[in-house]
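Note to self: keep these together.
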Amino acid sequence: MLETRPAKASLGLVSDETILLTGAKARECPKPLRRIVYRDPPSMKVYVFFTNYFRLAARTIADIYKERWQIEIFFRWIKQNLKTKAFIGNSENAVLTQTYAPLIVYLLLCYTKFLCNLGDTLQNFMRILQLNLFRTCTAKELFEPLDLCQII
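Structure:
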């Protein structure tokens, strides 16, 4: 540890340090790094962030990483549920088209789920829509409990 900066516990910060890596692969990163330890107040989980950016406040860096993780989760959901694992084309237009199409589908699903005022997860909502793709009914009817007396 090269330097320690004061960390405000009221903001969830545990420590803010400047470190220099040691060990077998330390030659790959010879510059000092900033190590920020943050405790998320609602969940009490402890997160450790490493960065080479020293200008921003420690809490700002923790917030950036937290938001970045939400973006990673969002794109993982899109890859898993909207089947966009590989790009077909490599041109800028192809990549943009293949990125925008799942985003538009995602937004339409969220908006439809919002309009129907459903408490189900987005993933379950999408699966039920897939299973009933050729059925003629409202989205609300898909989520009503089945009356088994009418079926028999």
